[in-house]
Backbone:
């Protein structure tokens, strides 16, 4: 599933960050920020209209991502 599809408060583990195009700068930046395979991730909050932006937490760090950016991140539910 995609990070953009994850419900608020649900924990997951990052599988990969997909490039939309060759040398996708946004996907590269997400990986630089710590969106890498094996990291635990959680949706803290969603914006009011259409859910943009999403507040995402990795470790103790929180990021505001647009749904289009979060859709690049593939995750699986953690146990």
Residues:
């Amino acid at each position: 599933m995609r990070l953009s599809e994850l419900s608020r408060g649900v924990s997951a583990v990052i599988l990969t960050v997909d490039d939309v195009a060759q040398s996708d700068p946004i996907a590269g930046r997400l990986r630089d920020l710590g969106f890498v395979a094996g990291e635990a991730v959680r949706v803290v909050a969603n914006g009011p209209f259409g859910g943009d932006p999403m507040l995402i937490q990795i470790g103790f760090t929180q990021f505001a991502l647009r749904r289009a950016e979060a859709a690049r991140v593939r995750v699986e539910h953690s146990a």
Q: What stands out?
A: Residues 25-33 form the longest helix (9 residues). The CA atoms of residues 28 and 39 lie 16 Å apart.
